[in-house]
Amino acid sequence: MAEPALKEESREIFDEGLNRGIEKLTSEKIEQVINAVLEDETGARLKVYVDTCVHCGLCSEACHFYVSFREPRFSPAGKVKQTLWEMLKKKGKVSPEFIRRASEIASTECNLCKRCSMYCPFGIDVAYLMLVVRRICHKLGVTPQYIQDTAHSHSATFNQMWVKDDEWIDTLMWQEEEAQDEIPDLRIPLDKEGADVFYSVIGPEPKFRAQLIYQAAVIMDAAGINWTMPATPGWDNSDMCMYTGDNEMMGRLKKAHFESAMRLKAKRIVMGECGHAFRSIYDMGNRWLAWQMPPIPVTHAIEFYYELFREGKLKIARKYETPVTLHDPCNIVRGRGLHEMARYVVNEVCEEFVEMHPNREHNFCCSAGGGVINCGPPFRNKRVEGNKAKADQLFDAKARGAKTLIAPCHNCHGGLEDIIHHYGLGLELKFLGDIIYECMEKGQGSEM
Amino acid sequence: MHDSSNWDWDIGKKQIADIGKWKDMFEWVEEPCASPDGEKVAAVVKTGDMEFSVCQNGAAWENTFDKVWHLRFSPDNRLAGLVSDMGEWTVAVDEQAWESRFEFVWNPQFSRDGSGITVAAQKERKYFGVINDVPWEKGFFHITNLATSLDGKQTAAAIQTVPFSEGEIFKFQEGCYSVAVNGKTWDRNFINVWDMAFSHDHEHVAAEVRTSLYDYTIAVDGVPWNETFLSVWKPRFSPEDGSVTAPVRIGGKWTLARNGKQIWNSSFAQLWHHIYSPDGKKLAAIVAPEFGKWTVAVDDIPWRHTFGDLAADPVFSPDGKRVACVGKEKEKWTVCVNGEPWNSMSDMAWKPVFSPDSKHVAAKVEKNGHYTIIMDGQALKNDFEAVWDPVFSPDGEKILIRGIEGKGDDAKYCREVLSLKK
Amino acid sequence: MKKKRLAAYIAVSVFVSVFAVISGFSQEDVTTVHDSAFRRMMRPAVRFLHDDHNEKAEIEECSVCHHSYDAMGRKLEDESSEDMACSECHTLKNVDDPVPLIRVYHLQCKGCHLEKNAGPVMCGECHAN
Amino acid sequence: MQTLYNFVSGPLVWLSFMIFIGGSLYRLISMAVLAKKKDPLVYVYMDWYYALRSIFHWIIPFGSENMKKRPVMTLVTFVFHICLIGIPIFLFAHVILWEEAWNISWWFISDPVADIMTLAVIASCIFFLVRRLVLPEVRYLTSYSDFVILAIVAVPFITGFWAYHQWFGYRLMLILHILSGEIMLAAIPFTRLSHALFFPVTRGYMGSEFGAVKNAKDW
Questions:
Q1: How many domains, chain A?
Q2: Which residues of chain C lie closer than 8 angstroms to D162, CB-CB?
Q3: Interface predicted TM-score (ipTM)
Q4: What is the CATH number of the domain that holds A330?
Q5: Rounded Cα gap, residues A102 and A96, in angstroms
Q6: What is the mean pLDDT of each run of 10 residues along chain D (219 residues)?
Q7: Could you tell me the residue range of the domain that residue A74 belongs to?
Q8: Which of B31, B67, B168 is opposite residue A192, by nearest beta carbon?
Q9: Is D38 on the interface with A (CB under 8 A)?
Q10: Which chain A residues touch B191 with a CB distance below 8 Å?
Q11: B363 in Cβ contact with B374 (< 8 Å)
């Protein structure tokens, strides 16, 4: 009924990508781009989703932004109303300021976590609709600065963090050397052809969390896995271009990643504890390239750990004593159903496991995923305050004894770190690999 | 290709190295590699604390290094590895380290005949291409996608020409990348530059470029095609007339273009890795005629047989009459020649190799953890613990198998020449 | 509107009287159509003034309504059946399903009204509360 | 009045059914064709087993988490939809009309029950109206068309109830009842009431993506 409310608060956020991005826009350009994207790149799905929505608002409670702010504009359908409905109704005749706001909504107020698809009686895929909005904004050149910069890094270096080719290899060699202090004959085999496992990580691992590569190497070594890591671009499985709407770059990144594995004749790709990268490889990038399923099977770390424990390849020396709770990341739980495997691993490694509620497919998003944390500091407060729901959920788990929070996803990690800090929750945050590394029997299965 | 006529083509098996014993000689032995002629087998070995070397046919190089990696034989049977010597990186070829030293070297490539070895190198935060120990005169902020001409005398790479800080998105979008050929930069900057190809006369370079965030095209020697596309894949020069072809995306579908103009009538859900027949008259490419169905198209006509998982590694026969590729269906790999898949399914299949007379196709495959060579759909030999790509004799009448037989301490590396005459 | 309504009322009265005849009840008085075959009444019984209806509808032959058929299904033009209940011929196979018999009545009344474009046709016009 | 009645209960019935059936087929087929052209992936990833699995969980009351969280809404929604579909088909008077027109008949609901069900539909409509006006997150999404659609659904039941009880203006109400019913029928393919047509498709597709590709539940 009413025009989408432009709240003062949201106007205040200055973002170079958004604010400068709309400077060059004209109404003709906006109209042309919106209609071109809607006409050329969308079809029955978008039409049916828009026609079928009965405006019932039942999706609202699914969204942590809505649950936290209790403002209708943060409900999933509310976000569609402020963006796509308006674009469709006005046949693309919207203002540059509207586009700025639409980009902000789609990129920073929706984590594309798909929880709402499970709350909509019709299974309307709001994440898909928000990606269409992001696509339009990308085509108009109005994308938040930080994530756009990341997309540029992807295009220039094929990784998320402007890591140069030599820096990547150097990091692997450095981690190998570090790990050899602990396990003298440990190797990180580079570019080894015909390995069973091609291990890929996301850009931030070599840049900020190199110990995760170290830990993965120790796990591979102990489990006696014939594995390799590539010494060429294509090592980074992450993909912010998927989230900026730069689908062409998304495809290019995934091609490089899969073809690195294919070049090395690896039988499967095992990837670190990252959610969005899994979505990109398993669900989005491969499809843009016309691979129905990943051409080389993709195994997420959780599934891999599960397999190693099930087959007895990894053994625990001493269980982790601190009570833990587990955050189910959207992209590998709603996106792959790994929640039971995660619980199996947690129970293998930890003494005491406290469920948080809701959990599994119904877990609340971390508010960092979907590229939101990658939109950077300007939107940090909104992201953290927009996830009071998560803080409540964590607080409840803490009240029931949990002291360590396991988040087997990089973005979740970043988001939850902020939430723990902001709300003073005092939980210790860990990857599953951190705990496995800490508790496992090391250096058992290495073979040359 | 390197001339292989002077190799040992006598029928029979030769044991080259008792590779299983190497483990007793060194602290560790990395995965071995075999020379194209099969006469040599080598591996990176650890000789002491933080001390590495290379063992070839059972004898270690005299020199040791802080680190050795990426050990490969060149097409002319020289052994090259990337080595760190007293904290400086360079390339060692048959025990001889290059004179030029860098902070890091990577991505080594060989010319077709093996005489040229190129690497990417970094020194004092400047990046170079290096050809046979000679670095480019000028270094750049960043290089990627190093490409080497067939003669190995030229290198090209995507380079960053304009410095910018992280977060400067609008500066990036003005175009800060270009191509350097032997260190000389193209006149024009682009948003991005990716895969490059050299012409067959080594004189020209074509590259995938992005001229805005949304417009992709091919640039040849710095000049982009007039037409732009939704996306493009790696270009190639025609061996026949030097024109440039590339897969291009138009209206959400892929097709093939030459010098900017669409040349194939069909469009595909995907089209990439296009290849020319040796005479340049025919073109083949990996295509997906529809979503999730993969095959090869030769001159615009896709094979009828498709694979659900993937098709890859296309290769023309020397006479240009046949094309082979590997395909994967329901997690099983096979080789497909002219649209006819082999019955034999395996856990992995390597790029097929045609005999010089185009009569035979052979490929390395892996089944249940063992390796073998399959020729024309039939397994040639018993299983190996490791095997390398088969090599045909120049007359096409013999095939050289290089492999490791026996496990652990009993592992032996052998070369065997088999006759293909019935 | 008023005229129409009046006409309708008249029509109802006429209609009701027809039913009185069919059901073999007293032919003079205001009465209702009642067939004992309807074990359970789904709707109020229809008021029907036999003579008024016939006068209004200009029906003189009994057999117009009280028709009679032979075993072969041929209509017997000279015979009438005013001494029989409809349900004696139009028997219900399933006594719990009165619908077929209802259809018989409806066809007889409503069918004729529709055909002649006279008389009530809406449910509540006959089955008035 | 009778001429009007004859018109709404004769040609208009044909027309409304033709629009309903023809329109529904048109909408479904044109969407299927468009999907084949623009979203071919829908066909690739559609999986009957998982589609039905999802639909099943969403058509049984309290079969999904969200339904459990909102018991009143769930109850009202199910009662509403069951009555909304059940009454037009199984109402005694309607069964009689089918019998008269086509000589086909089926089981019917007794009138007192139907009366209560009709009231339930009307009450549900009021509930939906109040919800639209009172709940901020629903009001925010509401446009005028939502009220119109609600009216299109409510009016046949209000007029039907009125006519059944033969209150004042019976004939007019009956005609309005028939007319509004026809409007609703004809409106199904071309308004958001088409959610009735597309429910199996959207739900089935989401169920397939979740079940067959992503190995997860979507309820």
A1: 3
A2: none
A3: 0.92
A4: 3.40.50
A5: 10
A6: 88 96 97 94 95 96 95 97 96 91 89 95 97 97 96 97 94 96 97 96 96 95
A7: 13-143
A8: B31
A9: yes
A10: 155
A11: yes
